[in-house]
Design brief:
It is a single chain. The protein has about 775 residues and is α+β, with helices and mostly antiparallel strands. The protein is built from 26 helices and 23 strands. Strands 1, 4, 5, 6, 7, 8, 9, 10 and 11 form a nine-stranded mixed beta sheet that branches. Strands 15, 16, 17, 18, 19, 20 and 21 form a seven-stranded mixed beta sheet that branches. Helix 2 crosses helix 12 (about 315-340), helix 10 packs parallel to helix 22 (about 640-675) and helix 16 (about 405-440) runs antiparallel to helix 22. The mean pLDDT is about 80.
């Protein structure tokens, strides 16, 4: 142990700069890897908290005609599936809302809270097996009136009071709290909040998510039966057999795989982060190796004195290898301090996982132990190299790398340059795609549009809008069912002798299209009167179903008979991940389908306008005032991509900085083992420029080779990532050139000072030292 400590002190003493760069590189890399590992573990453990997580499957419909998946089901099909497929043990239907307001009376005071809300069927307990803390789940979803709430929701609403038997109200619905369950973890499909009875609905409405509990090992049988004549019926089965390109296929992917491989396609982001984390570790350990080798000329004489005095070679090598462990141990301690403060920084908002040390102790312990073991392995090569010179040669004091050593060192530097250039290219393209999406024209106005959500049917949003318009707070207003990107209503209907499966329905008020500047392409806009359902289809609906403008004026069966009044241009009502799909705008006579009030603002004196809007709001309701802007809400559709771009940019910068520390180590080594050569060249008339060229030309060659290798790798990764989007930015040639030039510039700045010091050194002093 004493030998290890003495060697480590000698290493630090010989070059404080090398000590600093090693510690800084390790600390930054370890901190980044801890953060990434916590997020990756969060992603891979998503939906694995359920008792039957390996047996839960979610229902989807795959349409071969357009290659799209639809994740909803009606209320009738699940019973039929369970009756006809014995391998299906249970099922549950859910209809979740984003957030809803609930009212509770506590100690005579009426309080309003916002929480998650979902309607569920009784199979909820068989499929998801929540842990019940108190109360009874008997018949809880058999009829309206009872509610299951999460532990945290109960605490927020009722504080220390017993929630059982307490009454909650949401809009027209009233619940009695029947049971409290332990909160589901954050990395779970189910949002915590309130679960209650699911109201019956017409089979034509496919508005629910279906979850099925399947016997282990029976998925092949279930999939076959799911698409058999028993489920589809003879007519539809024959139609699909004759026209396979129009076939609709029922599928049941495992719930635990959907977060990574389903509609989010999170797997690409997760694996990208994991690869970046591993790259950062590799670069940090490569730096250590380069620094350790660059320090060899200054240490070999001391090492070989130990050998002359009889220190065992294996013991000496272990002592030198242990230096890597000491560096790692010290850096791990610093990285945990950095991790603690990182979770409170702005960058932490790019992660959805809990980054606190106390909630990730086990994972951090395993990672730390693994890194320490790796550091010992990594330390072996410098230990072998430093102790490989015989005593006479070492005491003579002239050193250089063997051909194999040169190849290894150059390969390590090549890897660092390649990853740096590739990461800069990738992060740059992600930034361009994010900018492209945020600035893309959706086909309707979204600037200076604010909105208010109101689920309480007692509040007449049209009266509120009228008063805001009259007092000059807003230019205009309109209403709809939900926001773009999360409309959440769809129909399947028979019309003109064909079944139209799954098209999006957006309930709106008559002025909605004019308010957003959406253009009609045929027929008329909605009339002001709302005596009967009116419907306007988009162009994609007409194209997919092969309809002409002749259908305008005909009757279409909606929730009640509807009049088709026109056709509107295509607009992007979902995120740009998806192509434009068939949809219809519908005006209903009833006001129950309008939960969002959109307000068109002038853009002048926004604080005063907001205050006036809030003052008017308080006349209609005592619910919290929460004015939001539509462009922000729509930008949030790309929050995952924006976060990914931010993270890759930051980690790319980190990788470049750590790699530049390695380049510094390369130049440090060159200047040390070429000291005599530099002195002789200067005595023979070489100027500073020629010496700089001697020291840096190898780095420039490596950088050129790295650029050639990095560009195709980055191009393939970028194209693979862009495949997730229906609308994508062009990949410019200058992105790759610019990335290479940036790394070149940083490299030149990094090595210039060290190279310049070697170039201007007095050759007489150098020869004396040699």
């Amino acid at each position: 142990m004493k030998l290890i400590i003495n060697n480590f002190k000698q290493f630090v003493k010989s070059s404080k700069a090398v000590f600093f760069f090693n510690i800084a590189g390790f600390t930054v890399a370890f901190t980044a890897f801890f953060v990434i590992a916590i997020q990756v573990y969060y992603d891979f453990s998503f939906n694995k908290n359920f008792e039957h997580s390996n047996e839960i499957h979610q229902f989807i419909r795959y349409h071969h005609a357009n290659g799209s998946n639809y994740w909803t089901i009606n209320q009738v099909l699940p019973d039929e599936i369970k009756d006809k497929i014995p391998e299906v043990r249970a099922y549950c239907l859910l209809q979740q809302t984003n957030r809803t307001e609930v009212t509770a009376e506590i100690d005579g005071e009426r309080r309003v809270h916002t929480t998650g809300y979902a309607q569920a069927t009784q199979g909820f307990f068989d499929v998801f097996t929540p842990e019940i803390i108190s109360g009874s789940i008997e018949n809880i979803f058999d009829a309206q009136g009872k509610a299951l709430i999460s532990e945290e929701t109960a605490r927020q609403i009722f504080g220390d009071k017993d929630p059982l038997g307490q009454t909650l109200q949401s809009g027209q619905l009233t619940f009695t709290v029947a049971a409290v369950y332990k909160d589901f973890p954050k990395n779970c499909t189910l949002a915590n909040g309130i679960f209650s009875y699911m109201f019956p609905n017409d089979p034509v409405n496919w508005n629910y998510h279906g979850y099925f509990l399947i016997e282990p090992g029976s998925m092949d049988k279930v999939t076959e039966k799911l698409n058999s004549v028993d489920i589809w019926g003879e007519e539809m089965f024959r139609k699909f057999s004759e026209n396979p390109e129009e076939r609709i296929e029922y599928q049941l992917p495992a719930l635990k795989d959907i977060y990574l491989h389903g509609y989010n396609k999170r797997i690409n982001t997760t694996l990208s982060l994991l690869v970046i984390g591993i790259i950062l570790l590799l670069i940090a350990f490569i730096n250590y190796t380069n620094f350790a080798i660059s320090m060899a000329p200054a240490r070999i004489r001391n090492v070989n004195i130990h050998k002359i005095f009889g220190v065992d070679l294996i013991r000496l090598r272990l002592a030198i290898a242990a230096e890597a462990v000491l560096f790692t141990l010290f850096s791990l301690a610093l990285s945990l301090v950095c991790l603690h403060y990182f979770k409170g920084s702005g960058l932490a908002s790019n992660f959805v996982a809990d980054l606190s040390i106390e909630n990730n102790r086990q994972l951090i312990t395993v990672i730390s132990a693994s890194i320490l073991f790796i550091s010992l392995i990594i330390g072996i090569y410098p230990a072998i190299y430093t102790t490989s010179f015989n005593e006479a040669f070492a005491m003579k004091g002239s050193f250089s790398l063997s051909p194999k050593g040169v190849i290894l060192r150059n390969t390590l530097i090549l890897f660092q340059f390649t990853t740096s250039i590739a990461l800069i290219c990738i992060s740059g393209m992600i930034k361009m795609q994010n900018d492209y999406m945020q600035n893309y024209s959706w086909g309707f106005q979204k600037e200076n549009i604010a909105y208010l959500q109101m689920s309480d049917q007692k509040v007449d949003l049209e009266l509120l809008g009228d008063e805001l318009k009259q007092n000059g707070s807003v230019i205009d207003y309109t209403l709809s069912w939900n926001l773009p990107g999360r409309i959440g209503m769809s129909w399947g209907r028979n019309f003109e002798g064909k079944y139209i499966d799954y098209f999006t329905i957006w309930p709106v008020t008559p002025n909605f299209l004019d308010f957003f500047g959406v253009k009609m392409v045929a027929g008329e806009n909605f009339p002001k009167e709302r005596d009967r359902e009116k419907i306007i289809f988009n162009q994609e609906f007409m194209r997919v179903n092969d309809f002409t403008e002749d259908i305008i004026g005909k009757e279409f069966e909606g929730f009640s008979p509807s009049d088709i009044v026109g056709v509107v241009e295509n607009i992007n009502f979902e995120s740009l991940h998806e192509p434009i799909k068939p949809m219809a705008f519908v005006v209903f006579p009833s006001k129950e389908y309008y939960n969002y009030l959109y307000l068109k603002l002038s853009g002048n004196d926004l604080p005063a306008n907001t205050a006036q809007i809030e003052q008017t709001w308080t006349k209609f309701t005592d619910r919290p005032f929460d004015l939001r802007f539509l462009d922000t809400a729509m930008d949030n559709l790309y929050r995952n991509e924006i976060n990914t771009g931010n993270l890759i940019s930051v980690f790319g910068l980190i990788s470049v900085l750590i790699a530049m520390m390695g380049v510094y180590g390369l130049v440090l080594f060159n200047t040390r083992y070429k000291t005599k050569e530099i002195a002789i060249r200067k005595i023979n008339g070489a100027d500073e420029g020629e010496i700089l060229q001697l020291l840096n030309r190898n780095m420039l060659r490596l950088l050129l080779v790295s650029f050639v290798v990095a560009v195709p790798i980055a191009f393939l990764v970028i194209n693979n990532w862009l495949d997730r989007f229906a609308y994508k930015a062009q990949v410019p040639w200058w992105l790759f050139v610019g990335s290479g030039l940036l790394v070149l510039l940083i490299s030149v700045v990094t090595v210039s000072w060290q190279s310049y010091k070697a170039a201007i050194a007095n050759p007489v002093d150098s020869l004396k030292t040699e």
